[in-house]
Specification:
Blueprint lengths: L2 E3 L5 E3 L3 E2 L10 H13 L4 E3 L8 H9 L8 E6 L6 H15 L4 E6 L7 H13 L3 E7 L3 H8 L10 E4 L11 H7 L4 E4 L11 H10 L3 H10 L4 E3 L6 H8 L8 H10 L13
Parallel strand pairs: 3-4, 4-5, 5-6, 6-7, 7-8, 8-9, 9-10
Antiparallel strand pairs: 1-2
């Protein structure tokens, strides 16, 4: 498994698993749990969730799935912006820890920016680190101006990642945010790298996949993972889907492939507003 280094120097795999939408239907629990176990078996140890997903249901499913596998997972979850006050962050983290059935979260993210000052949320993150509740902290859905403000806040240089929407059809971050993060050594965590499946009928993507003897999903993931300091967390709610995602690591896109995909989905030529799902 290919890896990238967090600012701390700790290595994590470039491909993990997202859990948005999991845990919401009891009839799917066995399949979703098996998907997480398959990801761990394949070395896709970054397991991403959030207190928002299913109002905690996804965290509960992840906690059940990791009950006997916690040591093999790099666990990521997120605090909602309206909880991200000094006291509210602590309370939210305790709730996540309880639902996840663990004593420590590996990476705790601010889900997006709200009305709470970043400096206040950072102070809460630092308190959680000192208490051993979290190992690292990061952010999600922050654009360049926010990242610069973060860097100027006390402790802001310790940010471990910025998790943002990034895929072949959502390339806005390539203009400034991605270079900014890479230049500072901050990994970018790409959520919805398959655009929730909507992009997989794209004819150019399908043609490139056919030429490689693989699937459009694998080409789309390989395209995201071609970037330095980018890791992807596709939602994969069945073992079969996880295995298909894992095979993207074997895909090597050619210069022609990249040129064809650029023509179909051109890179940005100007600043765009940060997109979110």
């Amino acid at each position: 498994m290919r890896e990238i280094a967090l600012p701390s120097g700790e290595a994590v795999p470039v491909l993990g698993i997202g859990t948005w939408g999991m845990g919401e239907h009891p009839g799917n629990a066995a399949r979703e749990t098996a998907a997480i176990h398959t990801a761990l078996d394949l070395g896709m140890s970054v397991v991403d969730t959030a207190e928002m997903y299913g109002n905690g249901a996804a965290e509960e499913l992840v906690g059940t799935a990791l009950a006997t596998r916690r040591h093999g997972a790099f666990l990521v979850t997120k605090v909602l912006p309206h909880h991200a006050t000094l006291r509210g962050t602590m309370t939210a983290c305790e709730g996540s820890l309880r639902r996840l059935g663990t004593d420590t979260i590996d990476l705790y993210l601010l889900h997006w920016r709200g009305g709470v000052p970043l400096a206040e949320t950072l102070e809460a993150f630092e308190n959680l680190q000192r208490a051993g509740k979290i190992r690292y902290w990061g952010v999600s859905n922050l654009d360049v101006a926010d990242m610069k403000e973060l860097a100027g806040s006390p402790g802001g240089q310790d940010v471990a990642t910025n998790q943002v929407l990034y895929n072949l059809t959502r390339r806005g971050i390539e203009f400034d945010l991605l270079p900014h993060c890479v230049g500072r050594g901050i990994p970018v965590m790409a959520y919805s790298p398959l655009e929730q499946g909507r992009m997989l009928t794209d004819p150019v993507l399908a043609r490139v996949a056919s030429e490689h003897g693989t699937s459009p999903a694998q080409i789309a993931l390989a395209w995201v993972l071609r970037q330095p300091l980018v890791l992807a967390i596709p939602k994969a709610s069945s073992p079969k889907h996880v295995q298909e995602c894992h095979l993207a690591l074997d895909v090597r896109l050619t210069t022609r492939d990249l040129a064809d995909l650029d023509r179909a989905h051109p890179p940005p030529t100007h600043k765009r507003g940060l997109e979110m799902l």
